[in-house]
Design goal:
The structure is a homotrimer of 282-residue chains. Chain A is α/β, with parallel strands linked by helices and 282 residues long. Chain A is 52% helix and 15% strand. In chain A, β1 and β2 form a beta hairpin.
Chain lengths: 282, 282, 282
C-alpha cells in the first residue's frame, strides 16, 4: 500500500492512514483516487478492524480541495469525474468510506476545512484538539460543499447550526466542533494521540460479531435517513455544476488559487475576503 | 413598511425587525397580522437576503401571547382565527417564516417565553445572551404551546429534553438554551450585537445560488420530518381547542391576565403560581 | 406494592421507585418480573402521574444484568424468556415503560451500566450527578446491549457518539453523559434530590389533558422512528442469540460472573480486562 498522498502504517489490526500531501494536505484528484483504492482494499481486508485517519502535517489535517484540480476536472476530459447525474466523485468516495466494515476514527489536530471536513463527517467517530480549526469556506466563494458535506452536516447537527456553519463560512475551533456535535469530543493536544491510540487498541479487540451487529443496528436506525442523504446529494451535485459554471465564481476561484499557500491558508477566511476584493476590483 | 408592533429598519440587503410592542412585547393579534404582512412582502422581496429579528425593549424579546387576545379570539367572531382543523394561525405564521427564502436570524437578549419561543424556533439560526431567560409556561396554566412550539421543540432537541422544558414550565437561561440546542450558541451581552451584525453582513453577500441550494438540501434532508411536523401541529391545534375550553383553565388565565405587567412578568413562573393559588381559593 | 427488588413509596401523585437489590442492584430475572408487574399496574393507575426512578444504594443505580441469570435464562426452560423472534424480554420491558401514560424521571447518583443504562434510556427525562458513572460494557465481553440500548442510544445521540460509547465500552461520567445528550443535565450531588423532587412536585400538578397532548405530539413526531426502533430491536435480539452462544463469550462471562462483587464492579472495565486475560490464559 504505497501511496503518494497517504502515509499508511499497520499496527496489528489497526491501520493508521495519515494524509501526506505537503505543503497543505490539499485533497487532490490523485488523493481521491488513492482513497478510493484504499477503501476498495479495506472492503476485503479482514485483517484490519480499525482505521485511524490523521495527518503527517503539524498544521493541516486537510486544507480543502485543490482549486487547480477543480478547474482541471471542469475542463480536462482526461480527469476522472462523475458520469452520473445524482452522485459525484467525492460523494461516492465519502459514502464508500462511511460504509466500510471497519471502524474509522478521525483524529484532527490542525486545520480541517472544505473537503477535509466533508471527509471527516463520513468517519465513524471523530476527535479534535481544542486548537483545531474547522470551516466550510465554500459559501464565501459562491458555491457550497458538494462532496456530501452540506447534506451530512444537516443530518448530523440539525438545520439551525448547519445553516450557520455553511453560510457563515467562519472558522471555528475544536471546542465548538464538539459543542455542535461535529466531533465526538475535544481533547488536549498533549493527550489526543494517546487517547485515540488506546481507543483504537480496544476497538481492535472487539469481535467481528459485535462490530457487525452494531453496524446493522445503525443501518436499521438510519435507514430512513438514507433516502434523505441521497436526495441531498443530488441537490449538492446539481448546484455544483450550476455554480461552478458561474463566471464570477470561476474568476474568484482563480484569484483564490493564487493564494493557495501556507501563509494564506492559515487564515483562509481573510484570504477569501482578499480574493473577493481582487475579483471585485477587476 | 410601517407597523405598530414592529420596528423595521433596512441596512442594505439586511432587514432588522425589532419587536416593539411596549411595555411587554406581547404577541398580540395585531402583531400576528403584521408579521403575516411582513412575511408576505418578504416572499417577493429580492432586495432583502437576511432578516435579523430582535427587540427594541431592553428586557423583553417577546413576553408571550397576549392573554386578553386569547379570550377575544375565543369569543369574538370578528377576530381573525383559523378556519382549518389541522393548522392554526400561529402555526401557519411560524411555518410561513420558516419557509422564507431569506436567511432569518433570531437575536435574544432578554425574556423570550411562550409564543416568543415558538417564533424563535422557526427562525433559521438563533443567538442569545447567557442572561436571557426562556420558558414555555403553558403547561403550568393547563395547556401547552400550540403555535408549533411543542412540535418544533420535540423535533429539534429530542423527546427527553423537550418533555422536560414543556412540562416543567421552568425558566432557563441562554447558556442552557445553547446546551439544549435551542439556540446555536450564547454570546456575552457586550458582544452579541456586533457578532450578529458581522454575521448578517457576511450572509448578505452570499449568492442567491448558494442560499437557494443550501435551502434545497435542508428541504430534502428534512422532508421526511414535514409529515411529522404537520401531524404534531394537528395534535397541538386539537389540544388548544379542547384545553382552552376547560373552565378551570379559563379561570386561571383570567387571573393571570390581571398579572400581565412588567413586575409580574419578570418572574412569570412565580406569578403563575400566584394566579393558580388565587384560582384555587375561589 | 411489595417487591423484593424495588422499594416503592408514594408521595401524593408521585411514585418513588428505588432499585433495591443489594449488594449491586443487579437487574435480575426477578427484578424484570417486578418491573413488568409494576408497569402493568401503572397503566391503569390514575392516581400516579409521575414516577421517579432512583436507587436505595449509595453507589449503584443498577450495576448491569445479573450474569448468573443470563446463563439460567439460556439453559433453564423454567426461566421466563421471549418466545418471539423480533423482541426480547428486556426490549419489551423498556418499551412498556417508555409507553407509560405517567411521566417517568430517572435520577442517577452512582454507577449505571449495561441493563441499567438501557432502562434509563427508556425513561422520559433523566438527571445525573457529575460523579455518576455510565458504561455499556457488553462489547468488551463479545456481545452488545440487547435490551433496546443499542438502538435507543443510536436514535438518541447519533451514530458517531453511539458507536464510540458502544464499542469503546469505556466508563464516562455524568458531565459527559449530559454533553452527549444521554441525560438531560447533570446536577451536583448536594442538589439533585431537591431539584428532582421539586420538578416531580410541579409535574404532578400538570393536568391530564396537558400531559396527554404532549405525549401525543411526541408520538406523532417520533412515529416514523418507531419502525426504526423495532427494526433495531430485531437486530439486537438476533445478535444476542448468536453471540451468547459463542463458546468464548460464554467462557468469558463465566469468568466475569466470579468477579461480580462490589470491589470488582467499582471499576468494571478493569475487571473485564482481568476476566479476558483469565479466559485467554485457559
Amino acid at each position: 500500500m504505497n501511496y503518494n498522498t497517504l502515509a499508511v502504517r499497520r499496527d496489528g489490526r489497526i491501520l493508521h492512514v495519515d494524509f501526506d500531501n505537503p505543503p497543505l494536505n490539499l485533497m487532490t484528484v490523485e488523493m481521491v483516487g488513492e482513497l478510493f483504492d484504499l477503501a476498495g482494499k479495506l472492503v476485503f481486508d479482514q485483517e484490519t478492524s480499525v482505521v485511524v485517519l490523521g495527518s503527517t502535517h503539524p498544521e493541516f489535517f486537510i486544507a480543502h480541495f485543490d482549486i487547480g484540480d477543480i478547474f482541471r476536472a471542469l475542463n480536462d476530459p482526461d480527469v476522472p469525474q462523475s458520469k452520473y447525474a445524482d452522485i459525484n466523485v467525492v460523494q461516492a468516495l465519502t459514502t464508500m468510506w462511511e460504509a466500510l466494515p471497519q471502524v474509522t476514527i478521525g483524529l484532527v489536530d490542525g486545520i480541517c476545512r472544505g473537503a477535509g471536513l466533508e471527509f471527516l463527517l463520513a468517519t465513524h467517530m471523530r476527535f479534535a484538539t481544542p486548537e483545531s480549526r474547522f470551516c466550510f469556506p465554500e459559501a464565501s466563494s459562491g458555491f457550497l460543499p458538494t462532496g456530501g458535506g452540506t447534506t451530512r452536516l444537516a443530518l448530523q447537527i440539525g438545520p439551525a447550526r448547519a445553516r450557520e456553519v455553511l453560510l457563515s463560512a467562519r472558522d471555528f475551533d475544536g471546542t465548538e466542533a464538539a459543542a455542535y456535535g461535529i466531533v465526538n469530543r475535544s481533547l488536549p493536544a498533549d493527550d489526543i494521540c494517546a487517547y485515540v491510540d488506546d481507543l483504537a487498541q480496544r476497538l481492535a479487540t472487539r469481535s467481528a460479531g459485535t462490530v457487525t451487529a452494531v453496524n446493522q443496528v445503525m443501518a436499521k436506525v438510519y435507514n430512513s435517513a438514507l433516502d434523505a442523504q441521497f436526495s441531498g446529494f443530488a441537490v449538492e451535485n446539481d448546484a455544483m455544476r450550476t455554480l461552478l459554471a458561474v463566471p464570477a465564481v470561476q474568476q474568484h476561484l482563480r484569484q483564490l488559487a493564487e493564494l493557495q499557500d501556507v501563509d494564506h491558508e492559515l487564515d483562509l477566511p481573510a484570504s477569501i475576503t482578499q480574493a473577493a476584493a481582487a475579483t471585485a476590483a477587476k
